[in-house]
Amino acid sequence: APDCQIITQKTAGIINNAENYFDEYHMVLTNNSYGVNALCKKQGAYNYKSINLDWQMREHENMLHVFAAGNAGTNTCTGAPQGFFTVLPYSQIAKNVLTVGSVDEQRVLAFNSSQGPSFDGRIKPEICGVGVNVTSTDRHFDYGTGSGTSFASPSIVGTLALFYQYYRQLHNNEDPDGALIKAIACNTADDLGNPGPDFSYGYGLINARRAVKLLENEQYFKAELSNGENNTHTINIPEGVNQVKLMLYWHDVEATTEASKCLVNDLDLKLTDPNSVDWLPWVLDPNPANVANNAIRAIDTLNNLEQVTIDHPTAGNYTIHVAGTSVPTGPQTYYIVYELIYEELELTYPYGGETLLPNEQEYIQWDVEPSNNSTFALEYSSNDADWISIANNIPANKRAYLWTVPNIKSTNVKIRLTKEATGASDTNAAFAVLPQAEVLSIENLCEGYARMKWSNHNLGAETLYEVLHLDQSGMKILGTTVDTSFTLDNPSQLGETYWYGVRAQLANGVYTQRSIADSFVSELATTCPWENDLKLTAVSSDRIVGRANTSNSLAHQAINFEIKNIGNNTISNMTAGIRVAGIGQVEEQINTDLDAGDTFQHRFQQVDFSEAGTYQLDAWVNNPNDTHTKNDSIIAQLELVQLANEPVHFPLKEDFSFLDDACIGTTIGLKGMEKWDFVSNSGACIYFEDESFLVLSPPDVENLVDEDELILNLNLSEYNTANQLNLSLIVFNDNAMGECKLWARGDDQQEWIEIYNILPTSGDDSDTLTNINFINRVLASGQNPSSSFQLKISRKGVGYVYIDEIAIDEVISLPVELSYFKAFKLRTDVRLEWETASELNNDYFEIEWTDNPNDAVTGNFKVIGKVKGQGTSSVKTKYQFRDDRPGKYNTQYYRLKQVDYDGSFKYSSIDSVDYDPPRNRVKIFPNPFNNELTLAISKTYSTQMTFRIINSLGELVLSQKIDLAKGYNHFDLSDLAENLARGIYFLELDDGENVKYHKLIKR
Question: What CATH number is attached to the domain comprising 941?
Fold first, then answer.
């Protein structure tokens, strides 16, 4: 699958992020060549990893995880023959994944391929791929040969990717269900080992040709049933069918770790022929003494895939019976797939159109019906007349032959395969046997250029050579020539490594194989063939982000050019130009002397970038004496983004929940919270941890000098400086060897003013900082709030800083001198109290309320009451109001609106009380921890939850059920923390509907 998109991560990282990758990249297949080697103690075991995988497959129907079975086949376990009960535990044993064994080129099981069954007797592995002497890419730009199920599994995934592609072509680009793809792969596999399934090969070696035919003929059904229900389906089998293979498969519900049998929903398959004879699926005996026995026809009570096969079936209608024998969690969706195999003989490689190399060894491969008992003969011809024998008496069970390609040059080579018993034969389409060009040298010329030379194999006078270079999507044609050398004049960057190759095209259009690519490091050289050569080396950015109402708005942005003289002469003048489609074109004269090898920076000031959007950018530089113009221009997409910056109203709150756990570097306008910027000067990043804290992390390489900045941009153009602005936040400063400070400035061109030094946190609990009046410090420093006002949290050093629940409240100066305003929770009611020290022309107070946090920010309150004021008074006056309205949920926000006799009014600060939390939430702190650990869970409903502690080996440390009340729940886990050894653990929270995992680190 050469054009697929690949995501790589270390071991289980791909599984842990599978849901995000599915949403972001539409990832539908994963290869997993790793596992836990537990010897015989836990081989084949089912645990929380298995549960998670089975759940993922059901929740994301289009996804399929594929696992290497393991290489423990030399072990002897559980009193069984050598190799059995050795499939690696946990992930490989999940019911809904596809587990892969390994065979060699002759389709014989690899000596160390792990074999089943699972601990509860299920068929594992389900399928095999070639995993012996596999040639693949290696480190250091090389190729290597290796063996093992880790090599077999990727070949299966690549084949399945082609199944997905073909299904999309047949179904308007829709994805198939992973269950369907798994069922088709297993049912169409070539049966190896014992007849029918076995614990060594599973259902056999994958057969892509048969699987694609099944997809093309749509020989499958999808249906569902509930407990006790029975479904029937009918298929017609015509005359001449050699074998029918039929499989029932379903993604089963995840089991529990304590279950002795992992199958939850038990479906049963039966096939009734036209003569009313019932055919049951093949079933294996998992008893250690019988694991090598042949399968028998019986009712299967262990597996979620069942296969029925019939040799030489009677023509007619067949009835498929599917019974919901036990479906406690339903309804259960299932697939029926079936294949009709005829007597056939087909060469599958070489198929036709390939080019092979003389004297190389290649496997000739073919397909034939399973019941074949005839030996084979192989011949080849290069002229359609004379046939030369390759081999005779090839055994009937063979499907491949290792052939040494003859030392010839021809574009009309064919192979003929013959059944020696019947004379039936198949001949493929023509392929070529031609020598391969060899790159002899790549020599540096002047900066960014080189000359490449290659060998000549005398392929004919009209031979054309294509020079190829590697880009992000593969080897692409750079140019063509009839010579055996070529000037590589695609500009390259000094010090960078590039890869080039060459292939020949004959006069009849046939290509040789591409040469093995050769690398080239671009270096300075003195053999430049151009006296005058300007190079446009860089344009500043393909994405420009501005923020409205600041000095960084799009209207203030510009484009920077970097121009280099890579010729031999000094260039005294030049013209630089830029064209932005839909905006305009500008050319500017640059009057400067640019010596050979020197670089010049030019900034375009005359382009109006005020309109956001995506544009095509065409940039160029020229000089009349520069005749080599290929490196004079750059064409790119330019994205202009204008971040909104409307006047802000208070209160303002941020809990950073829009972020995820991905590491974020320098970003202007963080996703979902565009008022915030992050500037990484040290190489550090930020991320969101455990649905709780924003984490300012240190860089990977120690940096005690450079300061990282988390900046909040506030448009205070409508702010009344008579009012106070108070900042509060929760912070855990674990940066004892560095600094963490709060800064502010009136606009984005002013100097930063230090507001608060956030000291390292003592103990294991976070600090809550409140009533930080930053605005007074700014005003006292002679700066005024503006539309580009900024707050900043800085961090430098080697430690982490954790931040949560930042809030800014505005304290408004009222015509009434208000001593306090408070809201108190009284079970289902709220009592509001306030006191005035004096009043002037005070007509009345309106009590305003909202339970929407967004409305609280925007000031969209509702009036729920009114209290008469004292008019004018110089004595203290206390007031009360009781909100006895029923049905209070979530956070309740209150404020006062004080109204004068003339109708003018002002608002008090906002106070709030919490009933139910605004969302379900989990906090684990501190994390990392020493001997103290707290688990806090807020729920919008009462429930029971199981929490489990699992170590890095997947072993269960603790399992306990806890009752959660509606609202806030607090659990002290310090006793547990004291008894845990240092290391990494996982906290699993299971409320019966969802399972969540949180990573814990014990110091």
Answer: 2.60.40.10
Residue 775 φ then ψ, to 5°: -70, -35
DSSP string spanning 724-790? EEEEEEEEEEE-TTSEEEEEEESSTTSPPEEEEE-PPPPSSSPEEEEEE-HHHHHHHTT----TTEE
Do 904 and 820 share a domain, yes or no?
yes
| pLDDT tens figures, 625-670 | 887 787 788 888 888 888 999 999 888 988 887 777 778 888 888 8
Q: Indicate the Cα dihedral angle 990, 991, 997, 1002, nearest 10°.
A: -80
Question: In terms of domains, do 726 and 852 share one?
Answer: no
Domain that residue 561 falls in: 534-642
d(CA 312, CA 364): 28
Reported as a single tens digit per residue, the pLDDT across 12-66 is 888 888 888 888 889 999 999 988 876 787 777 898 899 999 999 999 999 999 9
Q: Three-class SS of residue 593?
A: strand
Residues 78 and 130 in one domain: yes
First to last CA, the chain: 44
Rounded CA gap, 431 and 448, in Å?
Answer: 39
* DSSP type of residue 512: P
Q: Is the whole-model pTM more than 0.85?
A: no
Same domain, 742 and 668: yes
Tokens 């984490």 identify what position? 695
Q: How many other CB atoms sit within 10 Å of the CB of residue 500?
A: 23
Q: Do 316 and 236 belong to one domain?
A: yes
Domain co-membership, 727 together with 584 = no
Please give the helix or strand (H or E) that residue 348 lies within, else none. Answer: strand 345-349
Q: How many domains does the chain have?
A: 7
